[in-house]
């Protein structure tokens, strides 16, 4: 090799090392801890402090705050849409950088406040119940299961798994006055009706999500009025986890009536173990806490677009509930 060629090779190698070194320095400067520490966020957990579902959502948000360094104020609403709207007004008035809002109040109630938040430069995310009109007009993302498809899938799985047939009686419970929120149970109801089942549409009592015992008189009365009922579909993890109480109040043994619904929790795990619950659709509430915080941080700090995540994860059954049992007991599933 000539001296000129050797010199050229050495220079090229030096240039490569220099570029690699500069790239490493740039990456080291870009990657940092507490990268969202200057961002203030209001986060809606939905229910009351400590309830089975809201606590998992809250745990996800707390983990995201720890991982990003975001300054997060947590809001609990007892699953009251009216309270959520008042709290959303207060959150906008506090002028945080971002708000992660439960979609339960629906598009009509949220739209004017979403417009106000947009005008104030406040980034929005929504969780648990989609509000497609609000996000289409004023931006934001959605983290949660797609309500109607999830409900329909639950109904179809129950028909297949339990051999339900035309003429069988099923009770489907929901707060039917909350249009967007009730889409999930409506999907289950329509799946049953399409298969020829006789469906009893049962109205949830006020406060069921916070205190599932309020459902005892309503559910026992429905069972008494429909003594040949084969299945009850519940509107969330709180009442589903209370299935044993409802059945015992109605004088039923485990397995006499098929109990299905949504979510996982320590109570639901125990109900699977003891034979009171036969099927649930998992919507991974931990993600519904974690991802909105992450997305708001990314929007504010890095100018990235809003995240949209379908958290519907499939079904938990008597055969596989053990895989999530320990995590459920930790308040993570």
UniProtKB/TrEMBL annotation:
Domain of life: Bacteria
Entry keyword Signal: yes
PANTHER family recorded: D-ALLOSE-BINDING PERIPLASMIC PROTEIN-RELATED
Gene Ontology molecular-function annotations: carbohydrate binding
GO cellular component term of the entry, any: cell envelope
Pfam families attached to this UniProt entry: Peripla_BP_4
Localisation per UniProt entry: Cell envelope
Domain Periplasmic binding protein as annotated: residue spans: 48-299
Protein name according to UniProt: Sugar ABC transporter substrate-binding protein
Chief place where the protein resides: other
Database matches in SUPFAM superfamilies: Periplasmic binding protein-like I
Range of residues in the leader sequence: 1-28
Sorted UniProt keywords: Signal
Similarity comment: Belongs to the bacterial solute-binding protein 2 family.
Species the sequence originates in: Devosia insulae DS-56
């Amino acid at each position: 090799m000539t001296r000129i060629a050797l010199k050229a090779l050495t220079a090229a190698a030096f240039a490569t090392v220099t570029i690699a070194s500069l790239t490493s320095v740039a990456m080291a400067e870009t990657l940092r801890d507490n990268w969202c520490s200057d961002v203030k966020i209001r986060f809606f957990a939905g229910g009351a402090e400590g309830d089975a579902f809201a606590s998992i959502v809250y745990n996800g948000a707390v983990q995201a705050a720890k991982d990003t360094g975001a300054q997060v104020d947590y809001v609990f609403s007892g699953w009251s849409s009216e309270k959520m709207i008042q709290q959303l007004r207060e959150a906008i008035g506090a002028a945080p950088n971002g708000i992660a809002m439960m979609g339960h109040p629906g598009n009509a109630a949220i739209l004017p406040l979403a417009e106000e938040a947009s005008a104030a430069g406040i980034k929005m995310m929504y969780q648990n119940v989609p509000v497609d009109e609000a996000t289409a007009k004023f931006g934001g993302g959605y983290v949660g299961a797609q309500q109607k498809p999830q409900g329909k899938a639950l109904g179809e799985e129950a028909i297949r798994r339990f051999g339900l047939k035309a003429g069988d009686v099923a009770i489907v419970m929901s707060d039917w006055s909350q249009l967007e929120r009730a889409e999930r149970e409506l999907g289950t109801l329509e799946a049953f009706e399409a298969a020829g089942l006789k469906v009893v549409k049962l109205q949830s009592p006020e406060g069921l999500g916070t205190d599932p015992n309020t459902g005892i008189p309503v559910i026992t009365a429905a069972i008494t009025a429909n003594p040949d009922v084969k299945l009850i579909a519940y509107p969330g993890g709180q009442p589903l986890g209370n299935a044993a109480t409802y059945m015992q109040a109605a004088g039923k043994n485990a397995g006499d009536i098929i109990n299905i619904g949504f979510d996982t929790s320590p109570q639901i795990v125990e109900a699977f173990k003891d034979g009171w619950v036969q099927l649930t659709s998992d919507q991974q509430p931990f993600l519904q806490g974690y991802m909105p915080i992450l997305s708001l941080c990314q929007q504010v700090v890095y100018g990235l677009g809003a995240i949209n995540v379908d958290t519907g994860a499939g079904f938990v059954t008597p055969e596989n509930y053990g895989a999530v049992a320990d995590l459920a007991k930790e308040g993570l599933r």
